[in-house]
Each structure stands twice: as structure tokens, then as C-alpha cells.
Design goal:
Layout (H helix, E strand, L loop, with lengths): L5 H13 L17 E7 L2 E9 L2 E11 L5 E13 L6 H12 L12 E4 L2 E10 L2 E10 L2 E12 L2
Antiparallel strand pairs: 1-2, 2-3, 3-4, 4-8, 5-6, 6-7, 7-8
Length: 158
């Protein structure tokens, strides 16, 4: 069984920063009907962020590890559901979200940091648990007004 060690955390953060947070292109052929898939691979590790929707969306991040037997075993996943709360979202909102996700902390590499500000937007993230079993919520405010909310949960796959 692959431990969720420093190598795993390094890979997870690298994958997150190289995919959605970086504006990486989606796979040309989706893995499931209607999904938008963002893959990343390094060495024995593979990552896939696949989601559905736009203004309201649902998705999953998953990590696999190849133990050398040509069998990629799933080791970790996180599900999420988010929605925009208002129609007045601009490009600065998207930049704030992607920058916050790229700034995910090593100690809690689920989404973004507890607090992140960019321009008039403030990203707030709260969570409970650890890599093996966690849940949380994030919000983005424009000034004092909430404009986005997302719930997430996940953990180690055994």
C-alpha cells in the first residue's frame, strides 16, 4: 500500500498547480460523457481532475500509483461540488480562484489556503481532518458579498 508521504504531497501539489490552476487544456476525448478532464503524470504517479458543469459543477480529483507491476492502483481521491452565487463574475474572479488553488498549503493540500486575497476578491477555505479522511468548504467574496461556494471531501483509498 502506498503511503501518503512527502512524495505523494509533492506530486499532488505539482499536479494541481499544473492543471486547472494553470489553465491547462482539457483532454480532447473525455474519459466520461460530458466531463472535462485534466490529467497529469510524473514517474509512478498519475492524477486526473475530471468535472462536469460550469456555473454549477461537480468533480473529482484522483491519484494513482504504479507499483511497477503495470497496475495503477488508486490511492487518494477528493470529490467536490461548487456553484457561483451571482451573475456578476469577471475574469478577476477566475484569476483569484486559480491563484488560490495554486497556493494550496503542504499541510492541507486539498484546495487553497485558509485565506487568499487578489484585488477585490477574498478566498476563504476551512477544512477538518487529514489526508487520509477530510472534508471542507471554500468561499470567494467580492468585497463583503459571497459570490462562490464549494464543498469538498475525500481521503486515502485502501
Amino acid at each position: 500500500m502506498t503511503p501518503l508521504d512527502d512524495d505523494f504531497v509533492d506530486f499532488l501539489l505539482e499536479a494541481k498547480r499544473a492543471t486547472y490552476a494553470a489553465g491547462a487544456p482539457e483532454l480532447a476525448v473525455a474519459s466520461r460523457p460530458g466531463s472535462k478532464d485534466l490529467p497529469y503524470r510524473r514517474g509512478p504517479w498519475s492524477y486526473l481532475d475530471g468535472y462536469y458543469g460550469g456555473e454549477a459543477f461537480s468533480g473529482e480529483e484522483a491519484v494513482w500509483h504504479d507499483d511497477g507491476s503495470d497496475a495503477r492502483a488508486p490511492v487518494w481521491s477528493m470529490n467536490y461540488y461548487g456553484t457561483l452565487l451571482g451573475p456578476d463574475i469577471d475574469d478577476d474572479f477566475s484569476r483569484c480562484l486559480k491563484a488560490a488553488l495554486a497556493a494550496a498549503p503542504r499541510a492541507a493540500p486539498y484546495r487553497g489556503p485558509e485565506l487568499f486575497r487578489l484585488g477585490e476578491y477574498t478566498f476563504v477555505c476551512r477544512w477538518a481532518g487529514g489526508l487520509e479522511f477530510f472534508s471542507g468548504e471554500e468561499e470567494i467574496f467580492r468585497g463583503e458579498t459571497p459570490v462562490y461556494r464549494l464543498f469538498f471531501h475525500g481521503g486515502k483509498i485502501r
